[in-house]
Amino acid sequence: MANSSDPVDTFVDRTFPCFLVPVQPWELVSGHDGCSLISAFFDNVRHDLIIKALEHHQMPKWVILYCTRWLEAPMQTEGQPELLKKRDIGTPQGGVISPLLANLFLHYAFDRWMERQYRHRPFERYADDIVCHCSTMNEAIHLREALRSRFQSVGLTINEAKSKIVYIDTFDRFNVETSFTFLGYDFKVRTLRNRKGQLFRKCMPGASKKAMKQMTQTVKSWKIHRSTTECAEDLARRYNAVLRGWINYYGKFWYRNFSYHLWRVFQSRLLKWVQGRHRCSVKKAEQRLARLRKEKPDLFAHWYLLRAANV
């Protein structure tokens, strides 16, 4: 019998990261590496279930009216702007309200369902990216099959290519994947050093290779070395917000690797900028940059947010 407190079941008769390091070795990872758990989720989510969830929360009638209009707004096809396609499922891609409505839908379609069916199975969900923790591989396989059935009951399908079972523990395994990416972080077993200087192994998150590669490409696209007519203060005002955002988000975990990468990438571009602006050698450019940093240590975000002396 459907739970009356769950509007989906009733209808169908569904700034800074904080990570909980998994204590159970088996992870069912869905939507890893920036890909969604659900195939074409925003294109296939059902309007009637979203409206049912809004009515369950006793939203004012005008809110439900506007949400219905947003959902049913016709879609303009590329190459044929005069043709409008009627929408009966899915939310507008890029729409301001789409993430909110999708999150409300998944709260009942996944979160509340997990609380009822797998109360002791911890999980994390961000939008439609999900990580579920299991004690054994059989549990992970069983949960994946249950999720497949669950999403089919609400008109969705699991993205099979981007959902996987991962083993995260200090014991070596060669028949299964041992790392995964979630929210721009790589989760895997790393070698750490405690306060006494002793080495130990533990599962820890760290900025993913893909994220750091994207940072490098972004810094290169700025073409800082060509801004020779601008002063250092102008460069700081333009780029500090982005640098500060990266450091605040990725700098909490596996700090040394991330900080070294960001320092090397941005500092090398500043060095080329000094060379072009003052027409000097690499050695003299390094001296000028070191002198500027000593005079104005808070000028660039990576100078005072990264512990450069330890990088």
TrEMBL record:
One of its GO terms (molecular function) is RNA-directed DNA polymerase activity. PROSITE patterns: RT_POL (PS50878). Transmembrane segments: none annotated. The keyword Disulfide bond does not apply. Residues 275-302 form a coiled coil. InterPro entries: DNA/RNA_pol_sf, GrpII_Intron_Splice-Mob/Def, Mat_intron_G2, RT_dom. Keywords: Coiled coil, Nucleotidyltransferase, RNA-directed DNA polymerase, Transferase. Pfam families: GIIM, RVT_1. Residues 1-187 form the Reverse transcriptase domain. Belongs to the bacterial reverse transcriptase family. This is Reverse transcriptase domain-containing protein. It comes from Methylomonas rapida.
